[in-house]
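pls read this stuff:
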Amino acid sequence: MRWSTLFTPTLRDAPGDAEAMSHKLLIRGGFVRQLHAGHYSYLPLGHRVRAKVIRIIREEMDAIGGQEILVPTMHPASVWQESGRWDSMGDVMFRLDDRHGTPNALGVTAEEIFATIAAELTSYKQLPQMWYQINTKVRDEARPKSGLLRVREFTMKDAYSFDLDEQGLDKAFELQHEAYLKIFGRLDLDAIPVEASSGNMGGSDSIEFMVQAAAGEDDVVVCPTGDYAANIEKAVSTLPPVEDGSGSNAPERFPTPGIRTIAALEEAGAPADRQIKTMVFVVDGEVVLALVRGDHQLNEQKLADATQANAVRPATPDEAHAALGAMPGSLGAVGVDDLRVLADPALRGRCDMTTGANEDDWHYRGVDIERDISVAEWVELREVAAGEACPRCGAPLDIVATIESGHIFKLGRKYAETFGALVLDADGKQQPVIMGSYGIGVDRAIATIIETHNDEHGIVWPTSVAPYEVVITIVQMKDDASVSTATELYEALRQAGVDVLLDDRDARPGVKFKDAELIGIPHRIGVGPKALADGNVEYTPRATGDTAMVAVADIVDHVAAIVSAAR
């Protein structure tokens, strides 16, 4: 490709609403343009990057026996209603009726659809199966932002495995795990596999692949020794023991006028780690009490996972008052026997605690939680804090901001049972297949690469996904020797299989160099009269900016070898 005919509308400045670095550089470099909130058009450079990311994903999926198929983007509501996710998806799902009034939805994921296809399997002899697609997904994000990091319309690779038993699922899960590490390695992304919540996908286990980045919206708890890593929604830690007082025979009610917060109660003489924080939630329409230690924060996803709920939200103050007779700040679970009470294990065995008395401006002290509170379930609810001890080695844990780049799930038999994906086993008995689900967002991968590969001049693409691997910059278009040599090198590199761009624009050298740096082409060959006079051209790797003189006769083999090794 010649730059003089390339459509790449570079900009000096990023739009004012661009916050993430990837958003700024994708716009400035002419890779994408926003149509409306959360929807982007890929321009030629962006489309080339996208195609290369897809090629890498496809190659690694094919290498582990994946078979590519393609399913519709619009799904009938009936399949989602049958799985129970029509309601649980909530507002994230775009819904529409056809001309006959039949409800449909734009696909946010495809477990249901693949399970309907798997219903055509009949025998264990057809297993295992691994199918994948690379297709458009649509989600009605409340706040699409940060360019390609959070959009409404995106490209996703979603794969599904079908096996007879747990051992088969474990094998498929491991194959995907290893393939993901290879994919992210080829994308030059340092992705950390972490334990994660399965959310509304369901299933037993899931692993996210997280890339540390300032623009990340997901917090990950990591052990500096490498022994442990988990999403904040799943993470646990080891807490030091807490000394309680001797307690009393029964809770003592005492006045706390104007005290509404943990901090205010602490100032009144009740240490935060000796308080019981009572929160009221509505879980699938049921009012539930969630208890954590006063100095701990509740993680709402942990509550959702513990209750296996489709919908979880904090109760309104009026709802809390209706349930307990007091407003937030004076709430507690002492003597409550008509509501489901869930408590974090950090409260187990605690006595001489302080909590609300379910009357405004009154609290209890001397509370023995197992004596005075009817706890229905002890479940992990608290959010891990930095500095707490690793549950495996005891080292202080760190919390880092990350971007979720991939997610794999052990789904189990839920979808197979729902949609009749049944096979005969070796004994002639019919049983549902067991499924796994494995996703990578293509657009987010592109943005993540930029978030982790940039400098003050622009993008620094890995060679594997760069829109062009090499740019040949003609320093002076009026110099016939430079133009002739550059053109010959361009044709030779093309013949050698190198993805090369010839910058033949009639522009100042500084403009050409800055544009090449902005769009991030990994390797630059500068052809100018000064170097040519000595039989040389300039070779500059984008990553280092260190220019070296290379003989014209050697440059094609030199660059082709570097590019081949970096793919």
